[in-house]
Design goal:
The chain has one helix at about 50-60, and strands at about 1-10, 15-20, 40-50, 65-70. The protein has one domain (about 1-70). The chain is of the alpha+beta class. It contains one helix and four strands; from the N terminus they run E-E-E-H-E.
C-alpha cells in the first residue's frame, strides 16, 4: 500500500500524520484542497509498505522533531 505523511508546522506545534494514498484527507499527497500552502506544511511520499508500522518508521526517519501520528480516518 502507498503511504504519505503530512508534516504540519503550525498545528499543535509540529505534527506529522501518516495517511494511505486513498485517504480523503490525503488524495495521493495533494490534500483536501488539491494542494498545500508551503508555509503551513508539506506532503511527503513515504513509498509502498506492506505494514503501517513500516510507514510510521519511515516517517520517523524522514522528519525531525515532530510528533508522528496515524490518520484517524484511514489508519486505525
Amino acid at each position: 500500500m502507498k503511504y504519505f505523511a503530512y508534516e504540519n508546522w503550525r498545528a499543535h506545534g509540529h505534527i506529522t500524520k501518516v495517511h494511505t494514498a486513498d485517504c480523503p484527507f490525503c488524495k495521493g499527497g495533494l490534500g483536501l484542497a488539491g494542494g498545500t500552502r508551503p508555509d503551513n506544511g508539506r506532503w511527503i511520499d513515504l513509498g509502498n509498505f506492506y505494514a503501517v508500522e513500516d510507514a510510521l518508521a519511515a516517517a520517523e526517519t524522514t522528519v525531525e522533531e515532530s510528533t508522528i501520528k496515524r490518520c484517524g480516518v484511514c489508519i486505525r
